[in-house]
Amino acid sequence: MGKIIEYGNRIGVDLSQVELTAINIAKYIGTEHKIIVMKSTVPVGTTNLVEDFIRKLNPKANFTIVMNPEFLKEGTAIRDFNNPDRTIIGIDEE
After folding, report:
1. I need a surface site. Which of 19, 33, 35, 94 has the fewest CB within 10 A?
2. How confident is the model at residue 66 (pLDDT cuts 50, 70, 90)?
3. At what angle do helices 16-28 and 46-57 cross, to 10 degrees?
4. C-alpha to C-alpha distances, 92 to 2, 4, 66, nearest whole angstrom
């Protein structure tokens, strides 16, 4: 845990809390289909990392990951969260 993900020459991102959450999901998800909603501002590709990680830990897990990114500006994060000007939800499934 506590892996720093590096993207090219940019400073890495600590996704240890995302990884810990994925471990808990894999442990308790069961086999009935579940929808996992990721609501966070994370680097592009994080949903794929989470999906791969859960499937590795629990190959019998049946789930879909939906991304609902947050767009928060420094200094106005609370106001933006309470009064969103848009809602974006993405899914990689038909």
Report:
1. 94
2. confident
3. 40
4. 27, 25, 8
